[in-house]
Write a structure and sequence with these properties.
With about 250 residues, the chain is an alpha+beta fold. It folds into two domains: about 25-50 and about 155-200 and about 225-248, Translation Initiation Factor IF3 (2-Layer Sandwich); about 55-155, Protein of unknown function (DUF541), domain 2 (Alpha-Beta Plaits), CATH 3.30.70.2970. It has five helices and eight strands. The strands form two sheets. A five-stranded antiparallel beta sheet has the order 3-4-2-5-7. Strands 1-8-6 form a three-stranded antiparallel beta sheet. Strand 3 (about 95-110) and strand 4 form a beta hairpin. Helix 2 (about 70-90) packs antiparallel against helix 3 (about 130-140). The radius of gyration is 30 Å and the shape is elongated.
Length: about 250
């Protein structure tokens, strides 16, 4: 049997259906139909923790060329041996120096092959951060002609993440308490936590690149300090936590 519905009643029914299909706000929800699989009040909290870097990572090395491969390698070996001695003379431990690039290839010009090229790059972990550029100067004075980068990090990054996570959960709780107060309900215990990934830039990254650095003789020491030559900045860690609280 076909039943004709008055136009006004049909419009009201359509509005009711549309209202029932609307999605709750993603940042804070309450009730049994939480999109996160738990009933209650769902909130997100974000926190950022900053710290001064305690590790400078320097990547540098030598590039040598010669007509024959053996000669290019021999020249590079001598140059890198001098560079490593200079680095270690400035207090860098053997365990803090690691080869990251070693390669031999044909050296070409527009007219064709012109001998061979050997590249040898090492990564140096400088734990006395203000001395990072002193290490670079010593290496270049000893013969290094490749300075790839200088970047700054915090060695115990997990401690920063733990502090940021604690602050993020506290921020989520404060938001939930405010929502519960505004809704006239009582906030219960935590029933679900989801650790959210927050993409961020590489911490404290400052790059200094010169693919053809000319070694210079040591200059007279002046009043210039390491902080005047390079800025280590701060390392930042951001954490986001999704938390669901029960309603009592």
């Amino acid at each position: 049997m076909f039943i004709r519905m008055p136009l006004a009643l049909a419009a009201a029914a359509a509005c009711t259906l549309l209202a029932g299909c609307s999605s709750p706000a993603p940042q804070a929800t309450a009730g049994r139909n939480s999109p996160y699989g738990q009933e209650g009040i769902h909130v997100s909290g974000t926190a950022t923790v900053r710290a001064e870097p305690d590790l400078a990572i320097v990547t540098l090395g030598c590039s040598t060329r010669a007509q024959r491969a053996a000669a290019a390698k021999s020249s590079n070996d001598r140059a890198m041996a001098a560079v490593l001695r200079a680095i270690q003379a400035h207090g860098v431990a053997h365990k803090d120096v690691q080869t990251v690039v070693y390669g031999l290839e044909r050296d070409y010009e527009s007219s064709g092959p012109k001998g061979f090229q050997v590249d040898n790059m090492v990564q140096v972990n400088v734990r006395d951060v203000p001395r990072a550029l002193d290490i670079v100067s010593a290496a270049t004075d000893a013969g290094a002609n490749q300075i790839e980068s200088v970047r700054f990090e915090v060695e115990n990054l997990h401690e920063l993440r733990s502090k940021a996570r604690e602050k993020a959960i506290q921020a989520a709780r404060e938001k939930a308490e405010q929502l519960a107060h505004d809704a006239g309900v009582r906030l219960g215990k935590v029933v679900a936590i989801q650790d959210g990934a927050v993409p961020s830039a590489a911490p404290g990254y400052g790059q200094t690149r010169n693919s053809n650095y000319e070694s210079k003789a040591p200059t007279t020491q002046n009043d210039e300090t390491p902080d005047d030559r390079i800025a280590s900045g701060m390392v930042s860690v951001e954490v986001q936590e999704e938390v669901t609280f029960a309603i009592e």
